[in-house]
């Protein structure tokens, strides 16, 4: 499994490197408005082809690009029901605090667990390669955190079960 | 874990307060506790050395213990609780099953008084444990001859009944598990799997073997549908003679009565643990992002370091640019506001007083340090 992780992350990194060429582009439909075109999808000429990178059936990454914004949606692996609820809880927790991350979307795209929205303003404020590093590091950290959480929950359960059964001895 | 402790914490606290009061105190408290327990504590100022404690508890097994009165075995066990201090009052208070007369002067004055008061506060656990012991001992011989061992439904907590089936030489305790949320079901299922794993280890052969199944066990066939419909499965414990010998009987009975509460407490604390861990992780992840931003600012500062004729560093922070741009945008918006009502002289007022501050200094650069 670990052998497919590096190529998966490298592919995402290279795709983001190519896709993150954003510039300011005012809204064509409403005067004096500036909206991320990848969210509106009202003008097809401003949208690029979305790229779907799949590590396996349960893990994938969708990168949708437009002239002034980029949306990255991630589906995290969930091997069993416990990982499922831990992933949902954790990613919902992060999404509700999206303002702390600036580039995180409050609601993930349908069919995915978490989404990022990067606009040209973010690219002006932050360096592109650092932003890509952050996203790739975030993906690794999420996987690691879910695995650790699952192990902690099982370890706690084991300790509590041991204490309960000790009372009978 | 107040629901699992033998001593009632509220009752303990009130009795301690009553005992250590310097002046005579009048107390008339009604308490309602886990497992539908009702207490009434009465202490009058005219008789400060005596307190009356009335207790009411629903029957553990309504089908078998039809009478509301406590059995003689239970009364006997209560009498053994701090003899001298606790007496059973002849007249029971209306609405309660038992009234105890507590003689506070007979409680030892030194360090032991905490222990004595705690023992008095365990009166509800004594009543419940004695009821379960009686149910397990009063074996219906007719059923044994026919080979039928009908499950006995026990309701310590009315919403969480469990079953006891007597199949000599063992007793099987079956707990139907129900939770309101799906995440609770999953956490509890993980716990039950660990419980079964730990129980199968050599170290815990003396503990009652336990098993978990998603479907009702065959011993519960014929029971009511609402009792068998669960989302958390069924946990079974095989209690043998070894587990009910001597002092172990009390522990076994109390553990069985509080198993549901134990599981719920574990699920609640696990959810709290997950929440704490997520918060900590959030701080770490955000710190990485802020560290990234500060690295970028430092890089821009070092990039502009150079010209020897300038004093200090020429700083052109990206944040400064953004702030200037935003003020500029706001200023332009304000200027474009068209008021429907034209006020003479307002234009001049706006130009003079509603000006936005300029960020550029007279020197043409901002000195840092």
From TrEMBL, chain A:
<dbReference type="InterPro" id="IPR008384">
    <property type="entry name" value="ARPC4"/>
</dbReference>
<dbReference type="InterPro" id="IPR034666">
    <property type="entry name" value="ARPC2/4"/>
</dbReference>
<keyword id="KW-0009">Actin-binding</keyword>
<dbReference type="Pfam" id="PF05856">
    <property type="entry name" value="ARPC4"/>
</dbReference>
<keyword id="KW-0206">Cytoskeleton</keyword>
<comment type="function">
    <text>Functions as actin-binding component of the Arp2/3 complex which is involved in regulation of actin polymerization and together with an activating nucleation-promoting factor (NPF) mediates the formation of branched actin networks. Seems to contact the mother actin filament.</text>
</comment>
<protein>
    <recommendedName>
        <fullName>Actin-related protein 2/3 complex subunit 4</fullName>
    </recommendedName>
</protein>
<comment type="similarity">
    <text>Belongs to the ARPC4 family.</text>
</comment>
<keyword id="KW-0963">Cytoplasm</keyword>
Automatic annotation (TrEMBL), chain B:
<keyword id="KW-0206">Cytoskeleton</keyword>
<dbReference type="InterPro" id="IPR034666">
    <property type="entry name" value="ARPC2/4"/>
</dbReference>
<comment type="similarity">
    <text>Belongs to the ARPC2 family.</text>
</comment>
<dbReference type="Pfam" id="PF04045">
    <property type="entry name" value="P34-Arc"/>
</dbReference>
<keyword id="KW-0963">Cytoplasm</keyword>
<comment type="function">
    <text>Functions as actin-binding component of the Arp2/3 complex which is involved in regulation of actin polymerization and together with an activating nucleation-promoting factor (NPF) mediates the formation of branched actin networks.</text>
</comment>
<keyword id="KW-0009">Actin-binding</keyword>
<protein>
    <recommendedName>
        <fullName>Arp2/3 complex 34 kDa subunit</fullName>
    </recommendedName>
</protein>
<dbReference type="InterPro" id="IPR007188">
    <property type="entry name" value="ARPC2"/>
</dbReference>
<comment type="subunit">
    <text>Component of the Arp2/3 complex.</text>
</comment>
């Amino acid at each position: 499994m670990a052998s497919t992780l590096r190529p998966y992350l490298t592919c995402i990194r290279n795709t983001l490197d190519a896709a993150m060429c954003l510039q300011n582009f005012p809204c064509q439909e409403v005067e004096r408005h500036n909206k991320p075109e990848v969210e509106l999808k009202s003008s097809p000429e401003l949208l690029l082809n979305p790229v779907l990178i799949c590590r396996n059936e349960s893990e994938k990454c969708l990168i949708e690009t437009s002239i002034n914004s980029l949306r990255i949606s991630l589906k995290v692996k969930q091997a069993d029901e416990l990982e499922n609820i831990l992933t949902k809880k954790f990613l919902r927790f992060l999404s509700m605090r999206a303002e702390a991350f600036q580039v995180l979307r409050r609601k993930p795209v349908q069919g995915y667990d978490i989404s990022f929205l990067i606009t040209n303003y973010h690219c002006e404020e932050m360096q592109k390669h650092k932003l890509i590093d952050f996203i790739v590091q975030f993906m690794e950290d999420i996987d690691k955190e879910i695995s650790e959480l699952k192990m902690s929950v099982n370890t706690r359960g084991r300790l509590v079960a041991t204490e309960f059964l000790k009372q009978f001895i | 874990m107040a629901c699992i402790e033998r001593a009632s914490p509220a009752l303990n606290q009130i009795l301690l307060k009553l005992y250590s009061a310097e002046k005579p105190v009048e107390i008339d408290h009604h308490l309602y506790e886990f497992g539908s327990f009702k207490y009434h504590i009465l202490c009058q100022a005219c008789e400060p050395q005596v307190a009356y404690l009335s207790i009411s508890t629903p029957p553990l097994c309504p089908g078998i213990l039809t009478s509301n009165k406590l059995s003689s075995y239970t009364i006997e066990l209560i009498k053994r609780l701090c003899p001298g201090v606790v007496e059973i009052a002849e007249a029971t208070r209306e609405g309660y099953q038992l009234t105890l007369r507590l003689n506070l002067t007979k409680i030892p004055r030194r360090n032991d008084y905490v222990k004595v008061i705690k023992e008095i506060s365990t009166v509800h656990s004594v009543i419940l444990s004695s009821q379960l012991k009686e149910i397990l001992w009063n074996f219906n011989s007719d059923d044994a001859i026919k080979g039928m061992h009908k499950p006995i439904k026990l309701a310590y907590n009315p919403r969480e009944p469990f079953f006891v089936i007597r199949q000599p030489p063992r007793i099987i305790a079956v707990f139907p598990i129900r939770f309101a949320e799906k995440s609770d079901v999953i956490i509890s299922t993980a716990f039950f799997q660990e419980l079964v794993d730990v129980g199968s280890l050599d170290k815990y052969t003396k503990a009652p073997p336990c098993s978990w199944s998603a479907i009702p066990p065959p011993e519960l066939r014929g029971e009511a549908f609402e009792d068998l419909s669960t989302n958390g499965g069924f946990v079974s414990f095989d209690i043998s003679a070894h587990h009910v010998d001597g002092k172990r009987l009390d522990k076994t009975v109390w553990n069985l009565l509080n198993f549901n509460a134990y599981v719920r407490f574990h699920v609640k604390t696990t959810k709290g643990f997950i929440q704490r861990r997520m918060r900590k992780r959030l701080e770490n992840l955000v710190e990485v992002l802020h560290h990234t931003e500060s690295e970028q600012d430092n890089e821009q500062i070092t990039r502009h370091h150079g010209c020897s004729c300038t004093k200090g560093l020429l700083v052109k922070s990206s944040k400064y640019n953004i702030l200037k741009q935003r003020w500029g945008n706001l200023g332009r918006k304000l200027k474009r506001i068209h008021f429907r009502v034209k006020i003479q002289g307002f234009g001049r007022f706006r130009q003079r007083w509603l000006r936005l501050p300029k960020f550029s200094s007279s020197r043409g650069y901002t000195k840092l340090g």
